Amino acid sequence: MTPKDRSHSPLTSAASMRVLAHPTRLTLLSLLRERGPQTAAQLGDIVDEAPGTVSYHLAKLASIDLIEPAVPQSTDKRERWWKATAPLTSWDMAELLDDPEKAAASWALQKSIGQAYAARFSDYIDAAPAMPREWVEAGATGDRVLQLTVDELAALTTELESLVTRYAETSAGRGDSDIETAPVSVMYQAYRRP
């Protein structure tokens, strides 16, 4: 038996996609990936939800293997700690096109993710005036419409993934260095316009 690939958590069922499509669950999974192990109470403080509600959502995420119990970070035996099982979640949208139930679940999940991205970018726009100038100058946002073949679009996607992976590896390799860093959101989209 080969060891489980921990680089990503694959979603293969419509049910698992519907579980993750909930906005609170998307946020909780993102927080566990960004901040490491947390309790329902800690997460509840961040998302402004009661620990019981957060525990319910965490149980749903655990039911589809996106999170798992973590080693306790305190001596309080009543606390239950959770961690993400992988840094990424993936599913193959093209493979789902032949199954109407999976396709519908995938589109619903994609819409929820898009709404979360839009909310996060709106938060950035609101916070940018108070950020240090060098961080604002280093950021970027933009869009272009390119005339590409399907092969060129596939190549662009591969290059984007490779570039982000390189910086993700740099980020992960830092450990507790003295270099000033901050969480940076990277979002990109490349698709044929309808």
UniProtKB/TrEMBL annotation:
Domain of life per record: Bacteria
The Gene Ontology terms for molecular function here are: DNA-binding transcription factor activity
Domain HTH arsR-type: where? 15-97
Q: What is this protein called?
A: Transcriptional regulator, ArsR family
Source organism phylogeny = Bacteria, Bacillati, Actinomycetota, Actinomycetes, Micrococcales
